[in-house]
Predict the structure.
Amino acid sequence: MNGLFRRYLVVLFRFLPFALAFLRDRRRFILFGSPRRVADEIHRQRAEQIRDTMLELGPAFIKVGQVLSTRPDIVPPVYADVFGTLQDEVPEDVGGDPKQVVDEELGDELDRSTLEPIAGGSLAYVYTADYRDERIALKVRRPGLKPVIERDLRVVSGLIPLVSLFASERQQYSIKKRRRRLRGHHLERAGFRPRRGDHG
Ligand SMILES: Nc1ncnc2c1ncn2[C@@H]1O[C@H](COP(=O)(O)OP(=O)(O)O)[C@@H](O)[C@H]1O
Ligand SMILES: [Mg+2]
């Protein structure tokens, strides 16, 4: 089976239970029935499960979660709140060991034992470290990102029309605007593509 197609299936399958839950909030039996009332606590639990799913699916999905955490016009506040932990609490070992990157690229200049973890984003892990008599912040790009991000951004933008089917008109507007920026923007951020205005 083609790798991209397989990935679509994996992603769809992982989000399916949440999609069904949201559909059932609107109509209790999906195709018919009245809306059901969902306690705040249940929404928080769902948000946490979705966040954990994004963590498992990797950087591109974590990035989507980060973006959603700043977009209360797309997701309800409790989801934005929970997804906010993806801004700086992504574990060190997601996608591989960033310390290995430090060893390979700065092994001669930097004493690894002075590294102290301070935060984890989707694409980068951040340490403080001793460097030339100074304490610096060191932002390390997580290893092996490029192929994974490229594949998954394709999957994400491929799935957006499907997600939009279930969104309100107002949400659709926000999503559409976001989608246009998605691919280029995050590849730029990850350093795979020059930023607008950069030369070389
Ligand atoms: N220079 C820095 N000094 C201190 N903390 C930083 C620095 N750069 C990033 N961070 C922390 O690391 C987190 C992840 O960095 P970020 O640039 O957002 O990476 P990503 O693109 O992977 O999300 C930030 O949310 C912030 O908490
Ligand atoms: Mg970030």
Q: What stands out?
A: The CA atoms of residues 127 and 138 lie 5 Å apart. The pocket of magnesium ion (ligand 2) is lined by residues 66, 87, 121 (CB under 6 Å).
